[in-house]
């Protein structure tokens, strides 16, 4: 059900939302801001589906078209100054920092945004703070493949190759040895075309057949008035090759006795980056040698994480993130209290296999929707749509959201859904 248009109380602060439909839903954002802020939609039309009506944004706030505009040009379109900004992805985090710097808006500085989106900078900060994380080397754009392979001599193979700035496992791959590294790098020529990072592949905490979920969790945190509080612990289903995620669930299947240590590790990682107030999504690998931080995102996590956290805790991460971005208090937090989670909410995402080029048929979604516990089915790509498995998480074709009583029932329900949903590819 769509929300009613908000009452535009002039006493409320104005929050600029850098809107991207691929990372955040409009309706939850509207509900999250009710009574706390007036939304100013900063919309880049090039990111919107072709059939999107801009009147939808005007119904639920003020619309500012930022397509192709520089920060100064965006400022000229504003009827009044903004009191804060909210971004839902890394690109908008950097864009928002430039806008905030030019217009004097409360947000991350360009230097803070860079640390929150650049993997080598984060790894250096973690190392300086003594935070356990992967060993790594940075590979700068423009160096030759031979130079890049030589730079990897300090690492023990296998290693993981990924963009220095990227999310969702975009163009991420495991590399077994120097020969395989050279082969992977030469796919785009004799020299690197973008900054990359090569990092140690941390040993898995358990085998794929031992448990039905990945050994990676994330802590969902909010920094408000300098204080960091934790509001969610997210698990992941088993990953597909090249670290592609197949969905997440809240809370993670981790013994509650370990939750405080994970929260403390996430907080230390966040503080090492000297960030502004806002939302943070800290990814942690549960290795045989203990938890190790993979990265900190200076935004809310993607997928069904925001929806799932609210489903089982009653807390809207969007509401908390918006208030923090405006410098408003977020109220007391129960933190990562296992008693604060009612059941397990999940989003199961269906990814194309490596080598797939297009969707031919999607079947079984109506039957999946009818299952007890399933609350929503979302189709992202219709038959005939191209797919790019190298694009990482965002290549998914469809998703099924729902709720289970506990983790055992979650396993059973997802297995049932997997047996019903069928996708064929070219």
What does it look like?
The protein folds into four domains: 14-107, 3-Layer(aba) Sandwich (Rossmann fold); 135-200, Dna Ligase, domain 1; 203-342, D-amino Acid Aminotransferase, Chain A, domain 1; 344-426, Alpha-Beta Complex (Aldehyde Oxidoreductase, domain 3). The protein is built from 13 helices and 18 strands. 28% of the residues lie in helices and 25% in strands. The chain starts with 13 loop residues before the first strand and ends with a strand. The mean pLDDT is 92. It is an alpha+beta fold and 426 residues long. The strands form four sheets. Strands 13-12-9-10-11-14-17-16 form an eight-stranded antiparallel beta sheet, with helices on both faces. A four-stranded parallel beta sheet has the order 3-2-1-4, with helices on both faces. It has a four-stranded antiparallel beta sheet with strand order 5-8-6-7, with helices on both faces. A hairpin with a 2-residue loop joins strand 12 (278-287) and strand 13.
